[in-house]
Amino acid sequence: MPNDFVIQNVTQTLTGSLNTFTSVTFLDDTTVTNYVDTVLFDSTVANRVTLSTPQTITGTWSIGNVTAFDDVIVHGLVNTFNLSTDVVLTYGDQDVRGYKNFSLDVDVLGDMYTDYYGNISYLNPVYYAAHAVREDVPTNISGYTYFTSSGLTFTGNITVTGYVLGVDLSEMLSNFGSNMERIESDLIQEPPE
Length: 193
Hints:
Blueprint (H helix, E strand, L loop, with lengths): L34 E2 L2 E2 H6 L36 H4 L38 H7 L31 E2 L2 E2 H20 L5
Antiparallel strand pairs: 1-2, 3-4
């Protein structure tokens, strides 16, 4: 008769093909070596994802609606992406390589660097930074520069050390000043009697 009962507080091995329990709570470890509800329990335990223990997951898994409360390290692909090399993060330093097409505006809130061969909108930023005239930034322009816009406006001082349309502006200004002095002097003198 003792083999026909489950005895409380005793280590016991249950055998047979049908053991049915209702409202049973196991307060200690339980080992199942065969099927539970037509599922081979050994295989299920070996292939489960636990809720609260560190775990190495291998193979291909399809997992829906997952919230991770700690670090997750993926050594394989997630939806064909290698997370460590294929994803641009919203924080931290990263090397971004290859052709990227952004369909919306991209705001760069810090410094952005590219090598000499990298382009943004077919414009090389290294060349652009060295040759562009930027708004509200003092800029030295050297070499032959052509402004083709018909609405070019300078709101501050401009110093030209070369020629504009073949004219040396500093010499013209100097000549203008001495010519104005002569004109003023002529106007101030009393007319001859």
